[in-house]
Design a protein that fits this description.
10 strands, 3 helices, 2 domains, 8-stranded antiparallel beta barrel, elongated, alpha+beta, 21% helix, Lipocalin, 213 residues
Amino acid sequence: MKNVTIAIATLALSLNAAANTAKTTTNSNKPTTTKATLDVAASTLTWTGKKVTGSHTGKVSFKDGEFEFKNNKLSKGEVDIDLNSITNEDVKDAEYNKKLVEHLKGEDFFYVEKFPMATFKITSLSEIHNFVPGQPNMEIKGSMTIRGITKPITTKVFYTPSETGFGVKGKMMIDRTLYGLKYNSKKFFDLKKLGDKMIEDQFEVDFNIVVKK
């Protein structure tokens, strides 16, 4: 009887150890998920729009942003852009500058009264193999939402990891007409009638995103 009791106790200990080992293995295989936030003060976004007679450039501020890492690799992210913060930096005349900014905020363009935010979502970040030094080393895929319209977007960036987070620098060309910004576009208006009032459909966004864990 004593031997049976010892055998049962030994079996129980073995099963318990096996269960703990399986639990440890399962936990070790589970991805470690961490989150990080956008450093709004350190991040910048510059826009440039071109027309027949020249171009305009200015700034827009980020509102906030959150990013998720799995096993220390960026898996997804989202940043909100405050379109009410649009500024112009090339027009020196105060009255004309104000008029231009108000026009950009109006219904002809971003219509910020109804759509105050633009959103950029990152769905994947992949390494560019055999990239040339001085050229982008990563490719971002995601989506951009402007005026409630969401379109896929892909761009190459400089990705720099650090102990406290990471930095992403890059440029992207956005076709404004895909988001309903048709004002003085040659796609929707007669080019001869537009003349020197024609505005290019694509505008450039130069961004520097700083993220802290």
